[in-house]
Amino acid sequence: MANESSSxxxxxxxxxxxxxxLVTSLFALWGFANDITNPMVAAFKNxxxxxxxxxxLVQFAFYGGYCFMAIPAALFIRKFxxxxxxxxxxxxxxxxxxxxxxxxxxxxxxxxxxxxxVMTCGLAFLETTxxxxxxxxxxxxxxxxxxxxxxxxxxxxxxxxxxxAKEFILARLDKATEAERIILRDTNPEALSAIQxxxxxxxxxxxxILALVVxxxxxxxxxxxxxxxxAADSGAHTIGxxxxxxxxxxxxxxxxxxxxxxxxxxxxxxxxxxxxxEIELGMEKSTxxxxxxxxMGIFVSSRFICTFLLKYIKPSILLTILAVGGGLFTLGAIxxxxxxxxxxxxxISACMSLMFxxxxxxxxxxxxxxxxxxxxxxxxxxxxxxxxxxxxxxxIDKALWFGNALSSVRVSFxxxxxxxxxxxxxxxxxxxxxxx
Length: 436
Hints:
Layout: H1 2-9, E1 10-11, E2 14-15, H2 17-37, H3 40-48, H4 52-55, H5 57-79, H6 82-98, H7 100-106, H8 109-136, H9 143-151, H10 154-169, H11 178-187, H12 189-222, H13 239-248, H14 250-281, H15 285-309, H16 315-335, H17 339-352, H18 355-364, H19 371-380, H20 384-397, H21 408-411, H22 414-433
Helix pairs in contact: 2-8, 2-10, 5-6, 5-8, 5-19, 5-20, 6-8, 6-12, 7-8, 7-12, 8-9, 8-19, 9-15, 9-18, 10-15, 11-12, 14-15, 14-17, 14-18, 14-19, 14-20, 14-22, 15-17, 16-17, 16-18, 16-22
């Protein structure tokens, strides 16, 4: 065990285990934000009587923050350091959470979208900083394993966020159905307004607590000493030279493309599992969220298993195998009716567990200090979660049918299927390069 720890966290005679633990705690923190948010798409649809497309703008705003702030965050940490990047991220994260209180009081959907956007501007700082920081905290040859290990704590935060969403938000919302709310809107708008205000207060309360927790982390990092690490092969290139070099690096460019499709499939699967269970099986939202939590539990277990398998299987090969598996389960969700189709969606999470950190590690392998800027492209790729969920929501709204067999929600899972095909092609291409 001591040798294993040394191979992961000791570099140039320095032991980075403590700063690794401290920074790894952030992975759970943004995992919580991601997965308390996914169920809110269905919640806002019912509370505010909006379409699937409109409610999925929650994901557009949430992941839009990543797109907007990824490159500025990378430039910031390149000019300053990792610690200041983390502090800036925690500050924005906390401010975004506090904005949920005035958003709830105003009962305006756009105000919630602004709060999500500010919050994820902070998350963009945290992810742009933490991922390359973790890669640099030890030997270059164990960087991918180290990042997979750190990322394994992300779904622990996700599970906690899902639990809070299920028990303290979805289960406490008014039980009036969408049809009943529409009737109230036409016959008794004051009563509907009272229900909506109560529901929005329930949605906002956990974010206030989260704001205080994140502020506590801000103080913890403010008074902690973190090392100034530089990855192997550090260079002193200008920003222009670095960007030019990255655009000429085929492995990096295709990694960004693959990461875009991975984030898209992750958010689509975890967002619309609730709608799938509602439409196909008539489940209540809180019950359907339980299956989302089951999926996350499988995701967590699979992450640890896959991290172990990376000791024996090349990252590109394992990535390809899991992408093919994810595609097969998605086909099951499309063509198999009932509970078995829902179980196929749950099983997809076992195949997704490895993908984000592995693609990240493949992209940044051997980049040294240029990883600070290169990481921006990979965080920018999180924009896949910004664009694809609204597209899937639009497919569901259009009530498309394929013959007499497939409902619109099942047809909509063709988008995740396309994503897995792209990831599988990327993994196979990397295997042929014989570098990863």
